[in-house]
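Quick one: co-fold with adenosine monophosphate.
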Amino acid sequence: MNLARVPADFCYPDGMISVDQARAFILDRARVVSETEVVDVAASLGRVLADAHDSPIDVPGYANSAMDGYAVRSADVAEKGEARLKITLRITAGVTGGSIGAGEAARIFTGAPVPDGADAVVMQERCQVDGDHVVIPGPLKAGENIRPKGNDILAGREVLPRGLRMRPQEMGLAASVGLARLSVFRKLKVAMFSTGDELVKPGEPLPAGKIYNSNRYTMTGLLSALGCEILDMGLVEDTLDATRAAFTEAAGRADVIVTSGGVSVGEEDHVRDAVEATGHIELWRVAVKPGKPLAYGRIGEADFLGLPGNPVSTLVTFCLFVRPFLLKRQGATEVLPKPYPVVAAFEWRKAGKRREFARARLSREEGQAPKAEIFPKQGSDVLTSTVWAEGVVEIPEGNEVKPGDTILYYPFSDLLY
Ligand code: AMP
Ligand code: MG
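Sure, here it is.
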């Protein structure tokens, strides 16, 4: 059975908005940074390309051997039986080709240019050398073990589109067409702080009633993985004045402000009021679990994204909303995670009003679709669930899940980097 999702324009009676609506709203406000800079290809990992690049050359630029062996004329080798050919050339990688005539063969090495006249390469394991001759068994197909000119890339083809986030393979590809430097969007400056008078810095003693500040470190990891320049403002006291001062400072120094905690409606929650005092809130309360009190706003030229304080909520809402926002803001075109269907190996009895993202792991058996199991404790305070998990499964609003149901799975590898 496929689980139904609420339509994107669904209205919640209590003022919450759906995950899809919230994400579309936030993405709509993500202005791509206008400044670019030029970096060496070697320093381009994770950067977003500000220009598209066409290849100026064919890769490879010449037909070359895919093997160590002998380059021959396929017509010289009989359909059945074998041919005895004279070795007249030796071609190593990095030299230019030469040519062979009828009855001749060239010793050749991987990557070396195929000589004129040759149309096949026979791997050395199949050849028998006899003095200055080589004995080659048939049959042989024209083109065998030859990588034609332009096999990988034809000159003029677009190889790197604008908006692409560089991975190791694109770094290699850029180099393979001769690019040494790339124009990329400048890094985003992201200010972050945590709120909560109960929080203590790791490394310090833990007084009664206090907990260690974990979100600061989760957020540092998340922002670093996205290549942001972090302005770490530490911990801000739970007062309106301190919170307001923190926002004023952050807005003057960063493109985006990300906070954790203090964004609900409790008397000790000052984030919303502080943003309203210095800028404005445009979105608040998303029908997502973990993570309802998520906020988006603007303070001057800076965007504000307020994450809930519960550690699992901080992580999950960052992945679902902040990551796509920051990627788009950095100029990337592919910003949404791509879930895929898996089979539930668990039961979910309580059909909630909000869309839920349960911490999950996949198990795979030969010849079967992957099955998702979930961590037994799904509380938004249970950070170990996120360490146990390899990703999250999506439980659509108003649905129960039975073992065997098809659900969507998002691997952390797609959500965190
Ligand atoms: P809040 O959103 O401020 O109401 O916080 C919700 C819950 O998350 C409370 O139990 C807080 O103690 C906890 N919490 C808030 N901020 C952090 C943080 N930086 N690290 C760990 N736990 C936090
Ligand atoms: Mg708090």
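If it helps, The first helix runs from residue 19 to 28.
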